[in-house]
Specification:
This protein is 35% helix and 27% strand. With 394 residues, the chain is α+β, with helices and mostly antiparallel strands. The chain has 3 domains: 7-58; 106-192, Pdz3 Domain, CATH 2.30.42.10; 195-391, 2-enoyl-CoA Hydratase, Chain A, domain 1 (Alpha-Beta Complex), CATH 3.90.226.10. Strands 3, 4, 5, 6, 7 and 8 form a 6-stranded antiparallel β-sheet that branches. The chain has a 6-stranded mixed β-sheet with strand order 10-11-12-15-16-19, with helices on both faces. Strands 1, 13, 14, 17 and 18 form a 5-stranded antiparallel β-sheet that branches. A hairpin with a 5-residue loop joins strand 17 (327-333) and strand 18. The termini are far apart.
């Protein structure tokens, strides 16, 4: 026998359900509101600390006039520095423009790569092709002892290097020592294309390709080098990424594409565990045995390049352990013309684990050469790491 529910009971039930819904909604809304209020309160306390600091500085600092732009830049840089992430940074407008120029594969300056020598002078490790330094006749291993007539040892290495940098079209006079004799060189700073890929056919028809960075123009240079080696009859390929600090992920993808089989090569893992395919290869691949030369200066994209070739082409890594940077940065422009570079993800190949903070161990370990100038010389008689890689194909 069916029981009928009276209208009064139905109304009562509906009222109870509505009341319960209202109570639950109100509870969660209130909880959300309280969380937001607490967050605002915590932020206000942080800004109160900054305001108190600012008030104290303005009332006690011995200079009455402050560099307001400098203070703001310092605050922004300090905020990002608080992340204690060596790869995240706030960039001023000038720093961002310089970064973009570098990533495009261009450089403004004289074109020298330098280190500090034992005496505190500037040792030229290498000269960029088509640069003012090459045009002026400077050579690798020259020692810069003075900049615009001021001794490097008097102003210090860092200050001297800063003085060598400058705007396009301006001049700098360098005093360089070679074979015990010192000479002055007048250079005019200019914008020039960076050569990040070079190649040479070695004995045994082994193609040697040196990659120093992954810039926008590296893809074209790499493809030309690869075509030159393969059409020239290379029976094996050695890629040299020693002292390559990395660069653009898009460039890396375009470079490994013609080398590797079809499929997803690498993925990135973002906040919350979200993953994304970041390196994909098509069906075209280079069917040659390969090896990669690595050292502690091989980082970021250079490491992913090495790991990809080892994981998908069984290429051997020869040399020493890599740096260990397996995190990806994203750069966003800001309203002030500057930019924020922020670490947003880890990345790895689809075969092996992320190497961040660990590095890649070589399959054939060979100590680094004592003379850094040997790297990239394509001379197996002086470069034991290169010689060991060549032996893999003998």
């Amino acid at each position: 026998m069916n029981k009928k529910v009276s209208i009064g009971v139905s109304v009562s039930i509906t009222a109870i359900v509505c009341a319960l819904t209202f109570v639950l909604t109100s509870f969660f809304t209130l909880q959300s509101f309280n969380d937001k209020v607490q967050a605002v309160k915590e932020k206000a306390e942080k800004y109160d600390r900054l305001e108190a600091l600012d008030t104290l500085v303005r009332s006690k600092y011995y200079k009455e006039e402050l560099d307001e732009d400098g203070l703001m830049e310092g605050i922004l840089k300090g905020y990002v520095n608080g992340l204690e992430d060596p790869y995240s940074a706030y960039l001023t407008r000038e720093e961002y423009e310089a970064r973009m120029t570098k990533e495009s594969g261009k450089q403004v300056g004289i074109g020298v790569n330098v280190t500090e020598d034992a005496d505190g002078n500037i040792n030229i490790r290498s000269i960029e092709p088509n640069s003012p330094a090459e045009e002026a006749g400077l050579l690798a291993k020259d020692v810069i002892t003075a900049v615009d007539g001021v001794k490097v040892t008097e102003i210090g290495y860092t200050e001297a290097v800063d003085r060598i940098r400058g705007d396009e079209g301006t001049q700098v006079v360098l005093t360089a020592r070679r074979d015990g004799a010192e000479n002055d060189y007048t250079l005019t700073r200019k914008t020039f294309d960076l050569v990040t890929v070079s190649s040479q056919m070695l004995d045994g028809q082994i193609g040697y390709i040196r990659i120093t960075a992954f810039r926008e123009n590296t893809t074209e240079q790499f493809q030309e080098a690869l075509d030159s080696m393969t059409t020239g009859g290379a029976k094996a390929l050695i890629f040299d990424v020693r002292d390559n600090g990395g660069g653009l992920l898009e460039t890396l993808e375009s470079m490994v594409d013609p080398l590797l089989p079809e499929g997803v090569i690498a993925t990135a893992t973002y906040q919350g565990g979200r993953t994304e395919d970041v390196v994909i290869s098509d069906a075209n691949e280079t069917d040659l045995p390969m090896a990669v030369l690595t050292n502690g200066g091989s980082a970021s994209a250079a490491e992913l390049f090495s790991a990809s070739l080892r994981d998908f082409k069984q290429a051997k890594l020869v040399g020493t352990k890599t740096y260990g940077k397996g995190v990806m940065q994203d750069t966003r422009t800001l309203e002030d013309g500057g930019a924020l570079t922020l670490t947003v993800a880890t990345y790895q190949t689809t075969v092996s684990e992320c190497y961040d903070g660990v590095g890649l161990l070589p399959d054939v370990e060979v100590p680094d050469p004592e003379d850094d100038a040997v790297i990239g010389s394509a001379d197996p008689e002086k470069d034991a790491q290169l010689a060991a890689a060549m032996q893999l194909f003998s």
